Amino acid sequence: xxxxxxxxxxxxxxxxxxxxxxxxxxxxxxxxxxxxxxxxxxxxxxxxxxxxxxxxxxxxxxxxxxxxxxxxxxxxxxxxxx
Length: 82
Fold this sequence. Notes:
Pfam families: HTH_23 (PF13384). This is Sigma-70, region 4. InterPro entries: Homeodomain-like_sf. There is one protein chain. The chain is an all-alpha fold. The protein has a domain at 34-72. It is built from 5 helices and no strands. The chain has helices spanning 2-8, 12-21, 33-44, 49-56, 60-69. The longest helix has 12 residues, at 33-44.
């Protein structure tokens, strides 16, 4: 979805809706339990959610959801204006 969105200049959710309306089966890409284990270790080492997501080819929000499911306390977001 990310690639389609980037290629056609649309949001990934828009790409997903278009494909679903056309009857295309959407494959969900998530994190395996082993990948979540590694994501926990990397987050504890100070990696950002975005960096972990890039490593596993998932969104930062997917990483955040899986870490929260494991009981991880999220660090505060850095202020991007500084």
